[in-house]
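Sequence dictates fold. Next comes a concrete instance:
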Amino acid sequence: MKSKVLASLSVALLLIAGCGQKEEVVQNPVSEVSQVETGEQANEETAKKRLVEQGFEIEQLHTYRNEDVILFELKREGDVYYAMMDSNYEWMLQPTNEIKGIQYDPSFSQTEYDLVIYEGEHAPIIQDGLIALSVQDDRAREDEGLLWGYMNTKGEWVIKPQYRSVNQFSDGVAIVETIEEDRDDLQNSRTIAIDKEGNELFEISKHTEGQDSEEDSVYIDSFKNGYLKTSKGIYNKDGQLFAIDFILALNEVSDDFYKYYEVIGDQVVIILDNKIKVFSLQGELVREFPYPMSEDEFEEEAGELSSTNLKLYTPKALADSNQFMVKNKIVKLNGEVIFEGGNFLIQDDIIVSRSSSGEESAWNFYDLKGTPITDKNVVGIQLEEALYYNEPHWEEGNEYYKLISTKGEELIGEDRKISSVSRLGDRIVRARVTDPSTLDEIDVLINTETLEFIKEVDL
């Protein structure tokens, strides 16, 4: 979906809290944001009470593969609260209804291309260790009236809420929209890049040169792999703008076509005239080559290439190796095919491919040069369409799931009666077990490092 910088930079879904009675109102939000309670600040008696004893219901619970945090979305008496715990089940952020929204990204997973190249589809984003949250602005505004900032996984504001909208961090840079106070209606704003301390790095013009109407607004994508795509050109992290008018087709902004290219290193990859073309950032054509069709594709008489055959977005590990994805292949900038396969995914710096023979299927591992990894101790996990490389994994036993180490050792056996597991690669997993005393199924969290279980009702 197209988004105008003039209106908002947010590319995420905003989860707005319910409109029930609020316990507190944030005062002086720009300069003196009220401190959301952390575990240290919370009332000790309240901290000792379980969530259920405080009247909370768990609406959503999010865990993460590379972050030591559990993020809760709670509800009490129709009001929405947020909270955070670490993997030791200690509160980093006590339940609070001062937070009114969390930044989501609905487009991190590219399953429509038979690829899964990023974790956390439809989950709140934690990027560069920060999560974007909003609080209510007590000033009269004509928009949503939210102030956005960034909090770390310890429940501390790193950049206090002060922006009209924000974007995720990438390589330590984020694009945000300010609220300028030179007008009474607070509608004036600037589009700027900031670092992780909130320092302004550079400003992005909202309009094409010499124009100031809404129709001439500049469209933007997210900052990725060191570059920001906009409908007027490409910005690097230093704020240098490289115009893309050397590719006439990219001047079209309909259907987000302006961002249907990839910046790999310092070169632009795009599909034009049924060829893959590589340009320098200055607009010089470096090389062009036809799509490298496989024997099967020749037999199928593959049709013309289109811009959607270029897979967006390229994971950082690939971009750092001067590689990109087109159709079902990983290709180097010189046209050399590194890897091809029907269903594959990229996790960290590993290519994981699924091969099938009749009703049998197997997962295979490759490095980013396309070389098979044959280490017998390397294991994968296949459950609910998720797979992780060289990590403890869950296997189906005779009746229940069990956790197996990379050396084949049983870490958690069937005696724990685990009937389902979700979010498999996370340090904390959410599972359902059979209570041996009542034979009822109950929801638990499991720390896969300490192997500690805790009932959700005991949180």
